[in-house]
# Entry
Amino acid sequence: MIIAACVLPALAALGAGAGANAPLRPVHTYSIVARDASSGQFGVAVQSHWFSVGSVVPWAEAGVGAIATQSFAEPAYGPRGLERLRDGATAAEVLYELVSADEGRELRQVAVVDEHGSVAVHTGSRCVEWAGHRTGDGYSVQANLMRNDKVVDAMAAAYEKADGDLAERLLAALEAGEKAGGDIRGSQSAAILVVAAKSSGKTWEDRLVDLRVEDHADPVGEMRRLLTIQRAYDHMNRGDKAIESGDLAGARSEYESAARLVPDNPEMVFWYAVSLATNGALEESLPHFAKVFEADASWREVTRRLLGAGLIPDTPDGRAMVDRILAER
# Structure
């Protein structure tokens, strides 16, 4: 299908209604927006044959809602929509306000989910075929430029059947969309954004998952790998908190869970070993240090530098501990 000859001039003629930075080509293929009923979390997942789709399509705010803006995307739908949701507007009200004020609405595709799990979605009549959407309890899937009309149904079914947390269910929807045929142009980038049910006032903590694959031959497969790594680091962070509260057994469980997920990552093993060594389990830590040093001798120098940073006390006992660690082969 030739789009440039008829659609691009029409969109360019919209002027301010299209937004100064609105893309002049379809930057999106398929996405899902959702509120998880059990956790209250909000999320968006997207895959596209377009570079860095995560910088355009997904928008979400803890305690507020989530939005996906795509097709000939109007990025302003994201911040404007979240502002109205924050003010107490429903998903349907936000969608109406965004779309009715936009002269380019027939080229847009946008979905909104609010704090109550209500969803509203618009697929413009001029979105490139195949284009459409499906909604369910607390979620909406939408797509354009699809290879066939099976994609959104496959995504909806996968989301509803998937086990696990919201990020896992969103990724299951992306995987199903790709398996059903996906974008007729192929694939290039993907993103998953998940935020907390309620705002803590710290946006960096409220973003529970914020992963983007900017350019990859298999972006959905790469997203699966990245999500696994994130889960490992989440275990590490919980292990650190367990150490802070004096729960060595809990920390041990979390660190070992992280190592199982990414067994070839020496950093995971190293910080686990440091936590053991500095919390009365030096002998238990030594085989872990040895494994790290065998993989990369640079970690020996990292260990020495922990004294200067105070992560190992710069005392006679602390220096003796480092000497004992470095003696491991």
The chain has two domains: 7-216, 232-326. Residues 7-216 form a domain with the Glutamine Phosphoribosylpyrophosphate, subunit 1, domain 1 fold (CATH 3.60.20.10). The radius of gyration is 24 Å.
